[in-house]
UniProtKB/TrEMBL annotation:
It is an enzyme of class 1 (oxidoreductase). This is Alpha-ketoglutaric semialdehyde dehydrogenase. One of its GO terms (molecular function) is 2,5-dioxovalerate dehydrogenase (NADP+) activity. The gene is araE. InterPro entries: Ald_DH/histidinol_DH (IPR016161), Ald_DH_C (IPR016163), Ald_DH_N (IPR016162), Aldehyde_DH_dom (IPR015590), Aldehyde_DH_Superfamily (IPR050740). Residues 16-474 form the Aldehyde dehydrogenase domain. Its EC number is 1.2.1.26. It comes from Pseudomonas reidholzensis.
Amino acid sequence: MNTPYDTLYLFIDGKWIGTEGRATATVVNPATESLIGQVPLATSGDLDRALEVAGQSFELWRRTVPAERASILKRAADLILQRASHIAAQMTLEEGKPIAEAMDEVTRAAEYFEWFAESARRIDGRVVPANRPGVLQIVTRQAIGPVAAFTPWNFPAITPARKLSAALAAGCSVILKPGEESPATALALARALDDAGLPKGVLQVVFGVPDEVSSQLIASPIIRKVTFTGSVPIGRLLSKRAAEGVKPITLELGGHGPVLVFDDADVERAAVEGVANRFRGTGQVCISSTRFLIQRGVYPQFVDHFVSAARALRVGNGLHPHTQVGPLANLRQLAKMEELVADAVAKGAQVLAGGESLPGPGFFFAPTVLANVPMDARVMHEEPFGPIAILRPFDELEDALSEANRLPYGLSAYAFTRSARTAMEVGERLEAGMIGINQYRIVATELPFGGLKDSGHGSEGGTEGIEHYLTNKFISQA
Ligand code: NAD
């Protein structure tokens, strides 16, 4: 495959704006370390313009009838699907994930636009019987207002898609700031929406110095809703900024997903599919399974299957069709993996597979399996967000649950058992917003996506996903 990397722009007031004297950030292909693009960084004046336009376009878009909003979103979904191979190649070039994973992500991003196109037509209200004669009480739901949306580099199609599709369906205008490290994919979604006939200015895309952009956008009285996907510390920071302006915020932050494998489970499946899940996206996946807690009776068997599947993974440039695990997305990520493994090993952990960076060029780290990791190792507390799996035995269900729920994270959790009683118990007691029983594939357009505890609040996707972009109003008429 030899797809060139797209030119990068800001998309403000319906115009595609190039560098034109602005500061830029470089985009690096993480598989080759070559510079592939320069992304223009918005100035404060650019952001002011985007805010003004977001306010004006909101007045137009909120009054556009739902059927029209829906048909634009559906056309955008069709265009994304028609352009899927091009968009997927952009993603692999800038983020590194294998091309098949990138194609899957683009397809699922298009599904969100289809799904929320339907939701646009189902934003209904209520007539509430009054306790006084001659009074009509109507409850309506209206678009909340212009949205500031911040998305990270790891899922450059699906994360913007979840936010844009629901917000636009609700009638909100949006200023999106995607990750500067993988900008072309989000711009390709914006291009599809533009080509589908989204009125100019309803969606704008900016890049910049993240802290400066979020400070300016969130502080503006024009913005009425904030949504962020990324790390817990930045989620906390943006939450405080949103609170200053009394603005609701949806947060999808990190995780450290436990997997409970019981003696009665299909152990081979739990292990082999666990490897696929853990190392998908080179482990840079917030809902990834990270801590594998295995009941002692099947621990040796699980370890054998898991380690041999991990060692068999083919690591390489994501553009090669046989690659199963690509590079880490950036040098920070590579340095972090080296630190986490060195720390765990120094404290007594055993490396059963991988454990080190692979020769470059490219930010490659071998799929790593750690056992006997002491509780004071950093990786037992910090989200690894990379290709490291932790295996630990447990004796009783209570031990497994207390380890699973020990951390402040609460995004995803998984369990494998043939017992309906155990499945019900862990489903009830695992502290996570998304739980997979006897499977790892937990994300679906139709289901709410979101976490508990420090992993954030608010659900994206499903019938719930549009709610945050709507606000209630009642009209009581005598
Ligand atoms: P980071 O915290 O610096 O950045 C995470 C994201 O937030 C990036 O997209 C970045 O552009 C954005 N960001 C950073 N500061 C911001 C600010 N002040 N205002 C607005 N946006 C801001 O972390 P990183 O080095 O990119 O990644 C490190 C960790 O973040 C990972 O190890 C992982 O724990 C977490 N993370 C989580 C997700 C997720 O899907 N939940 C995605 C990416 C990163």
